[in-house]
Amino acid sequence: MPKEIERKFLVANDGWRAQARAGKRLRQAYLAATDAAAIRVRIADDAVAFLTIKSATPGMSRDEFEYEIPVADAEAMLAMRVGEIIEKVRYAIPCEDGDLTVDVFSGANAGLVMAEIELASEDVVPALPDWIGDEITRDRRFYNANLAEHPFGSWATDAR
Amino acid sequence: MPKEIERKFLVANDGWRAQARAGKRLRQAYLAATDAAAIRVRIADDAVAFLTIKSATPGMSRDEFEYEIPVADAEAMLAMRVGEIIEKVRYAIPCEDGDLTVDVFSGANAGLVMAEIELASEDVVPALPDWIGDEITRDRRFYNANLAEHPFGSWATDAR
Description:
Two copies of one chain form a homodimer.
Chain A: E1 3-11, E2 24-33, E3 37-44, E4 48-55, E5 61-69, H1 71-78, E6 82-93, E7 99-106, E8 113-118, E9 132-135, H2 144-149
Antiparallel strand pairs in A: 1-5, 1-8, 1-9, 2-3, 2-6, 3-4, 4-5, 6-7, 7-8
C-alpha cells in the first residue's frame, strides 16, 4: 500500500527563497473529509489534475492513493467541494534527505507559509535548513482538509 | 460533463430471470457521502475496480465521474468506508430503450431486488417489462449511499 511519510513545519524566514526552483500553482479542494479518509481534487498550473484519497491517520504516515484525471473533470468537481478552495504556490527546494517543498498560500489562507519534507522512512532524521521553524506535523489545524474548512485567515490572531 | 440519467424500480416478480444474462458480483462502499457528492469504490468480480464521484442532485440526472483503479487499491480503500459494504449481483436484461439491470442484494441488504434503467435522455419513455414494480427513482432510501448507512435489513417491516 502506498504510504506518505512527511513532516510539516512553519517557515521562520525568507531564507528558502534563494534556493527555490520555479513555483507551481496549485488549486485544490476536498470533496469530503471523514474520520477515515480525505478525498481531494488538485489542479496544478491549470494543466494537470489529480484525485487523491488519503487515510485520516494522524501523524507522519498516511496511506495515499492518487490518480491523474482530466482537468475538466477536476474543474467540475471543485463545485462539489466542502469548505473553501485552497490556493497556494508550491516551491521545490533542493534537499539531501527527501523532497522539501514550501507552500505559500493565498486566498482564504493568505499569510500562511508551510514547509513539508517527504521522507523515505519515519526513521530518517533530516538535516533541516535554518529557515525551518516550528514543527506542526501533528497539529490538525494545519491539515489541508482543515484549512479548507477553517482557513488561516479566519483564525483568531492569539490562536496562531 | 458526463451525466447519468437513470430510473429505478422495485421488482414485482421473478419474470426477469428468464431473460437475464450472467450476473456480475459487485462489492462497493462509500468513502463519503456529503450534501454535494458521493464517493464510491466498486469491485466487480474481484477483477476490476472503479472509483466514482457522483453529484448528489436528487432525481434522474446526476453528474458522474468514474475512473478505473487497481483492485488492490480498492480493497484497501474499503477499510476507509462509511457504513456497510454493499454486496449485490447485477444482471443485464435485454431492453430496447436503454441499459436495464437488476440488482439482487445480499449481506446487510439481503431481500432487496431493484431494477435500474439508464436512458439516453430524460425525455425517453421506456417500454417497461411487466415484472417492473413501483418506481423509486426519487426515494432517497434506495440510494446506494443510504443503503450503506441504513441497510434494507435494518428497515422496520412496516416502513418497507
